């Protein structure tokens, strides 16, 4: 675990640390004052690399951080904090982002659960609309950007009601034909992480990973219950309770949208955020194969006894096989 920065410590001759406001396995997030712009507060996202990496891979990982930080600094969207700077300090690298005041959605859902009430579906869908807009913006960048750590604690609501998707710690730039090194050791938060994101090779992770996490986040916000993680669902598909079983006031369409987004196999999820958005808000259509409690990775069982015509054909075929067997034995 990396040592924390001290209160009052100045980094990059510009950022004076106030306090640590978040911590993960890869480093911490600090609230800091920008000494060049009086009155401006910012968030410093610390990147601590895996010390077990060989030196050549460590150098490559740091170069990748610089490339990705450059791309993140170009982003400009109302539901994303602005990345304004990046720098190195010894063995660590830092992203400098706008500090976002306000409550995160994890706190809000915990408050609702403690008060034995559900968050309003209308209010949650209002937040979902903003999140979908931010993700569509990220996914349609060239190259595409996948956040990979969408969860209630990474979604903050400002005092004006604006949703912000924070923490770019696990972001992946979908550069074609590049081997991706995970800059920050971690795979996202298990409850919201799709099964393909657990692989050591990132090649199978794309925008549909964010769609899964989006659906899992909505599940938690609307039921007060965190979803069963994908690994358990893989082994026991029926372990995920339908949202309306927990919160009967939910609309059927919202429930189906959540379960579609949370399909275990990425091919069974919406291909893009815009497709998911169109269905969630009432104008789009879902494919004919709706959500099933059967694992997407299961081998389908053969049903040889279907309708009456099928039964007759099966028994006729069996009869022919038996007849041919009898004839061959009597000769």
Order of strands, main sheet, comes to: 1-2-3-4-6-5
Distance between the termini: 81 Å
From the spread of the alpha carbons, the general shape counts as: globular
User: Helix tally?
Assistant: 9
CATH architecture of the largest domain: Orthogonal Bundle
Percent strand equals 15-25%
CATH topology of the largest domain: Transferase(Phosphotransferase), domain 1
Mean pLDDT figure: 83
Specify the biggest β-sheet.
Answer: 6 strands, antiparallel
Low-confidence stretches: 177-187, 291-307
Helix and strand content put the structural class at: alpha+beta
The total strand number stands at 11
Notes on the structure:
By secondary structure, the chain is an alpha+beta fold. It has two domains: 10-98, Phosphorylase Kinase, domain 1 (2-Layer Sandwich); 103-280, Transferase(Phosphotransferase), domain 1 (Orthogonal Bundle), CATH 1.10.510. The protein is built from nine helices and eleven strands. The chain has a six-stranded antiparallel beta sheet with strand order 1-2-3-4-6-5, with helices on one face. It has a three-stranded antiparallel beta sheet with strand order 7-9-10. The protein has a two-stranded antiparallel sheet with strand order 8-11. Helix 3 (121-139) packs antiparallel against helix 4 (207-223) and helix 4 crosses helix 7. The radius of gyration is 25 Å and the shape is globular.
